[in-house]
Design brief:
694 residues, alpha+beta, eight-stranded mixed sheet, 33% strand, disordered N terminus
């Protein structure tokens, strides 16, 4: 895993740190351990580190957290981790029991016990359970995904929910990126590593097969084969009674996919809609969320619009669409949720949620606000059972509002079902939204959490967080870790809604793609400058944090705007944009960043932090954090950045978790430890005075 390419371009041959890309090589791991020791010695010895780590772990392990559930038949299912079960329990209860303050749970799989029995290091990756054909029959057949150490690659095993045991000689998929997906109790779709040539350049499945129970995987019949340069191939059977259909999905790139309807005889019919559109087939409806303008049948629909049409009529050639949502300058579609008879739209208006209920009718869809939806806070909705009822779960959260779970039915006022406890003191704190002006005049929103009596003397330790990529929206949410690790210490917390994200729909995302990536970085720098201009903070007290694509963001802040920041926490980052597409899943992100082997390198080279480091530059202190087991963003990015900066004499600290996958941590203990390292580093570098505890 993670080996360097044998076709290294000449300009890369001079990189003295390519050997650090050999993930499990003894020399590389010894180097990692040496770097870890330096950071750990510095940060673990700090006053308050151990108490902070213990507090963060107590928050993560708290029994008072909300056990979120998924309904399958007559049970609610939940995956739970705590201090006694660090790798977790997959368990279930009944709806009536779940309403109680302390439900009684039936454990199905104890991952810690499984690890002890098998001598493994399994991390839970989820369960895919087959809906029974007869609604009166119980759920029985489940496909369980388990990952070694938290990597994206995992194994699939079959579990019997009635007998509560692993199925002897059941379906089994060996470790790889991919999955199994139920067609019926004796048949699955398999998309995985079938051997040489069966994976894409991104390391994902290129082939999907139909596999019958009791036959070897090698005998499975090929359903579809993609191209090596595709991102991934998959397939799914829609089990909705009366609307059973099979689909194949060919993902050519992140924003370029084809949807095929599979007929009984095995032929595939491509759904003739834009590749860039998000596609959903629900019962009789084909739903399209456009990422680009689309002209069809004499009509032009804007990017960001949600369209609906009758699926069978569309297959027959009709091209009549109804616009269910059209964006404005301040609104975008955040999510859609089907219940049995209604479609709930979740709309962002200046990064604030508004919910509406649409009801299909002959010739038109009625629309009204969702009864009882809160006017403030971040709100998300999911159906309890979209085939059986119009009931829904609603989650409400905010920076200072502990997460609350509601149970509702369309047309009725929802009621509170469960609420998480407060993990930090919020009295005297307030949330506000502001707008900075970017270099090109664009207004960029950001949220700030700070004391109501905040002094504008420029001395407030401030942590600025951002992401800005892949159309991901950063909305307010409660975090006990941020509260205890930063706000309770007297720090100011800021989240920037920069371009590249999805806060204003596809246009906000596309504004920072490829050659326009610089706009995301200019937006983030503008927010930093606005905080300084308003007297909230000053460069020596302003820290920044980001992970993955956000790690690339803060890496660029480090090398491009070092004078604006006093500390940088860079987690599981991309940093070498010359080789990112050659490492693990990197090739799948070229639609976002560009192709370094083409003329795109002219602009990519401008935002490749690894290539823009300078020995004479005055960089703020940096903490790099990654995971050996991250098989999505290669740990070589962080390793090489650390090595080059150390060679140049900069102040940089490094910690690499030996397991944990792209999330960085495999269990709560590891997560609490890594959070404590980050907050301790920020506290040491940004506080002008001893931190206070709220």
């Amino acid at each position: 895993m993670g080996k360097t390419s044998h076709n290294t371009p000449p300009e890369e041959a001079t990189d003295p740190y390519l050997w650090l890309e050999e993930v499990d090589a003894e020399q590389a791991l010894e180097w990692v351990k040496a770097q870890n020791a330096v950071a750990q010695a510095r940060l673990e010895a700090a006053d308050g580190f151990e108490s902070l780590r213990a507090d963060l772990l107590a928050i993560l392990d708290s029994d008072d957290r909300i056990p979120f559930v998924v309904k399958r038949g007559e049970h609610y299912y939940n995956f739970w981790q705590d201090k006694d079960h660090p790798r977790g329990l997959w368990r279930r209860t009944t709806p009536d029991e779940y309403r109680k303050p302390q439900p009684q749970w039936e454990t199905l799989i104890d991952v810690d016990a499984l690890n002890a029995t098998e001598g493994e290091n399994w991390v839970w990756h989820g369960a895919h359970c087959l809906k029974p054909r007869d609604p009166d029959e119980p759920y029985r057949h489940c496909l369980i995904s388990l990952s070694r150490g938290g990597a994206d690659a995992d194994v699939t095993r079959e579990f019997d929910l009635v007998d509560k045991r692993w199925v002897d000689d059941g379906f089994f998929r060996a470790e790889a990126k991919g999955a199994l997906s139920w067609i019926d109790e004796n048949t699955v779709y398999a998309y995985t590593d079938f051997g040489e040539g069966s994976l894409t350049a991104s390391g994902y499945p290129r082939i999907v097969k139909e596999w019958r129970r009791g036959t070897p995987l090698s005998a499975a019949a090929t359903v579809y084969s993609g191209e090596p340069d595709d991102m991934s191939i998959g397939a799914v059977h829609d089990h909705t009674r009366g609307y059973e259909r099979d689909f194949v999905v060919r993902s050519r790139a992140f924003y370029d996919n084809e949807l095929y309807l599979r007929a009984e005889e095995g032929t595939l019919l491509r759904i003739d809609v834009p590749n860039s559109a998000r596609k959903q087939v629900h019962r009789r409806w084909l739903m399209l969320e456009l990422r680009e303008p689309w002209s069809v049948a004499g009509e032009t629909y804007p990017a960001g619009a949600l369209l609906a049409t009758d699926f069978d009529a569309f297959i027959a050639g009709e091209r009549k669409f109804r616009v269910l949502f059209a964006p404005s300058e301040t609104t975008s579609l955040a999510a859609t949720t089907w219940t049995r008879n209604h479609l709930i739209l979740n709309v962002l208006d200046n990064v604030k949620n508004r919910l509406y209920v649409l009801t299909p009718g002959e010739g038109k869809w009625a629309q009204e606000p969702l009864v009882g939806a809160p006017g403030i806070g971040t709100v998300s909705v999911s159906a309890v059972d979209d085939e059986e009822s119009d009931d829904y779960f609603m989650i409400v959260t905010g920076y200072l509002t502990p997460t609350t779970l509601y149970y509702g039915r369309v047309g009725e006022t929802p009621h509170k079902l469960k609420a998480a406890p407060a993990f930090f003191e919020t009295e005297g704190l307030a949330v506000s939204q502001h707008f900075a002006t970017s270099r090109d005049g664009t207004r960029v929103p950001y949220f700030m959490v700070a004391g109501e009596d905040l002094e504008t003397d420029g001395k407030n330790p401030t942590l600025l967080y951002g992401y800005g990529g892949f159309e991901v929206s950063l909305t307010p949410g409660y975090s006990g870790g941020v509260g205890r690790g930063w706000l309770s210490q007297g720090g100011v917390y800021v989240v920037a809604n920069i371009r590249g994200g999805g806060e204003y729909g596809p246009r906000w995302h596309r504004a920072a793609l490829k050659a326009e990536r610089h706009t995301a970085y200019e937006d983030f720098a503008a927010v930093a400058e606005d905080l300084i201009a308003r007297g909230i903070t000053s460069p020596s007290h302003l820290g920044i944090q980001g992970g993955s694509n956000g790690g690339l963001l803060v890496g660029n802040m480090l090398v491009t705007y070092p004078q604006r920041f006093g500390a940088v926490v860079c987690q599981v980052p991309l940093l070498d944009m010359r080789r990112y597409h050659r490492l693990l899943a990197g090739a799948s992100w070229m639609a976002e960043y560009g192709d370094p082997d083409s003329d795109d390198w002219q602009f990519l080279s401008q935002y490749s932090p690894y290539h823009n480091l300078g020995a004479e530059a005055d960089y703020p202190p940096l903490l790099l954090m990654t995971s050996t087991r991250d098989d999505r963003v290669h740990p070589g990015h962080a390793r090489k950045m650390m090595a080059r900066m150390s060679e140049q004499g900069h102040e940089v600290f490094y910690y690499e978790n030996i397991e944990g996958g792209h999330g960085g941590a495999a269990d709560n203990r590891q997560q609490a430890y890594m959070q404590a390292l980050a907050y301790t580093f920020l506290r040491q570098t940004l506080f002008p005075r001893p931190p206070i505890r709220r």
